[in-house]
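Narrative progress, year one. The postdoctoral researcher (J.K.) led the effort to move from monomer predictions toward full complexes, under supervision of the PI. The following entry was the first complex the group processed end to end, covering 364 residues in total.
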Amino acid sequence: MTTVVLNRRRLLAAGGSIAATGVCGLLLPARAQSLAPTPSMRGGSNNYRPGAPIVNRIGGGGFWMTGTVRRAGDGAPLAGRRIQIWAHTTEGHERDPHSHGATLTDSNGMFRLEMPQIVPAFGQPHGHLAYDSGDFQTVFLRPLMRSAKDTSLEAHFVLQPV
Amino acid sequence: MRLARVTLIWAALAAAICVPIAAAAASPLLAWRDPVYIAAGFAGIIALGLMLVQPVLTGGYLPGLSAPRGRRAHRWIGGVLVVAVIVHVGGLWITSPPDVIDALLFVSPTPFSAWGVIAMWAIFAVALLAALRRRLGMGPRTWRIAHMFLAVVIVAGSVVHGILIEGTMETVSKATLCALVLAATIKVMADLRVWRKRATSR
C-alpha cells in the first residue's frame, strides 16, 4: 500500500510544475507566430567558397539537395535568395571548386539543385549549405544523411533580417 | 601439437589485423578519395591494428618470442604508432584543414573526433614519458601506473573513435578488431596487476 506524503518540498514541486505548465500554455500561441531563426551548425562553414557561381546542376547530377528559405518572425517565404551547396561527392572533395554551386529560391522560397551523389567523408555522409548574401544574417548548415545510400537531402533556412 | 598451437596464435593475430585492412582496401569509398586522404585513413586503421599487438607483447602471449625481444618490439611499435597518428592527422589536415582544426579544438560536429584527439594526446604523452622517464627520474612503479592510465585512455578513445566513424572500414571486421583490442588490454592489466607494489622491478 502506498501512502501519499504531502510535505513542503512536494507541494512546492507540484505547485511549481502546475505554474510552469500554465505559463507555457499562455506563451505558446504567441511563439507559433514568431518563427525563430535557424542557427548555424557546427562545422557548417568548412570548405565554404564565397561567391561560388549559380549553376543549373553541379557536375553530372543524380542527387537532389532541396529546401526552403523563410523569414524569421512571420515565416514568409523568401524568393530569389542565393544558397550555396557543396559536399564530398563521387566527383570531388569538399575543397574542390567544382564540388560547389549556388542556386536561387523560387517564389515559394523553395530551392532544389541537382548534384553528384554525396559519399561519406570525414566519418559522416553530410552536405553543406550556406546563405551569405547580406540582407539577412549568414547561416551555414551541415545536414546529415540518414543513410549513405540516400539520393536526396533537405535543409531549411529561417533567416534573421540584419 | 605445440607447433600447431604456436602457428595458430600467430596466424590469429595476423588475421585480426590484416582482415580489417584488406576489407577496408576493398571499400567503394576509396574510388572517390585522393591518395593523401586514403593514406590518412589507412594510417588510422594500421594504428588500430598495432594497438592489438601492444598488450599482446606486454603480456608475453606470443609463443616463441622472448621477454626482452617482446619489450623491444613493444617500444618500436610504440614509435610506429606515433608516426601513424601523425600521418593520420596530417593527411586529414591536407584533405580538409577546417575539419581537422575543429577536431583539435574540440568544436567538431562529429562525435568521434574528440575521442580520437584525446587518444592522440595520450599516445604522444606516453611516447614522451617513455623517452624521458630516466631523465625525469621516474621510478618503475610510477612509470607503470602512468603508462597503464594512458594506455586505458588510448584504447578507450581509439575504440570509440573507430566505432563511431562511417568510413572505409568494414563494420564487422572493425568491431571484431576493436573487441580484441579491448579484451587484450583488459587481460594484460588483470594478469600484470600493474597497480600492485612489487619487490623487484621487471
